[in-house]
Each structure stands twice: as structure tokens, then as C-alpha cells.
Design goal:
Elements lengths: L1 H13 L1 H24 L18 H8 L4 H36 L1 H9 L8 H19 L6 H43 L1
Helix pairs in contact: 1-2, 1-4, 2-4, 3-7, 4-5, 4-6, 4-7, 6-7
Amino acid sequence: MLNRLQNLVIRTSRTWWLYLGVVVLFAGSLLSLLRIGEMFPAHAGGNQPFDLQNGLSAAEVYPQIATYTEAARNLYHVFTLIDYAFPFFAGLFIAATAAFALRNSLPEWYAVLTARKLLPVFMVGTVFDWLENIAALSAISLYPAKTGWLPVLLVLAKKLKLACVMTGQLAMLLLLVYAAGNWLAATFRLRR
């Protein structure tokens, strides 16, 4: 499985139309999530979906669920369905962009990462986002029954997702800046 995922990252980083497709799916799913996020508070006591509350605490989960109408529950199910695709395409975008930058500016690092099948590390945030979705849907579906560990799992998964995604984005941006600097330096050297 890891081998297939790495091959997808490499293939996406090498194929412009596949990369463009990932960008379109990433952006489209993000826009859909944001649109649902705008509609959601009207049906949920003014609360956003848990995924859009980066400062969420475990103690806030069940009081918020108590405000959900049937429309809010339905919106959350649609939101979560999209939010299984979104983190995959977002992670693939980050991993493919980083792979492209590594291959073109740090080929030795790229060789090591590909040999050790480490390019999918850029997508670890995806797994935590999926875990967050499972915990949120479980808490919502089981309510009014309250399972004390579900809100904790939801918030923990959210924190780990945010840490992994921000680290992946920062690494990707640094690699892109480095690759762009190398490209500019090579371009100016050729003109001399």
C-alpha cells in the first residue's frame, strides 16, 4: 500500500495534467467544505462543524452536539463525506509538490526519500483528519449517549492533524523556495 501511495505521489509530481486534477479536486472539495461551513451555524446553535474549529476542546463537543437540528446532522454527514476526499487530495498536493521540488533541487535527498518510501510522510495529516472525522461522526451519531473518550479522540486527532499539516506545508514551502532559488540562479548563470 505504501508503495502504491508513493508511486501515486511520484506520478502526480511528474504529470502536469494529473497534478492539475489534484489541485482542482483539492480546491473544489475545500470550497464545498467552506460552503457547508457557512450554512451549518444556522442549524447548529451558531456552531461551526468541529473540523473548522481549530481551538475546539473536548468539553465543548457534547454541548455543541446538543444544539444540532436534523438539518445540522444531515449537513455534517455531507461535510464528512467530502472531508474524506479533501485531506487525501490536500495531502497528495503537498506530497507531489514537495517531490517535484526535491527532484529538481535536491536530487540526493529525493533519491533517499524515494528509496525508503518516505514521500507519503507528507500525507500523515490525512490519516489524522480521517480519524477526526470518524470520532466526530461517532459522537454525533451516538448522541444523546455520551462516550467520554470520543471527544478526547476527536480533539487529539485534530491537534495531530494540524501539527502534521502545518509541518508538511512548511516543508513544502521551504522546498519550493529553495527550488525556485536554484532555478533562478541557474537561469542567470546561463545568461552570462
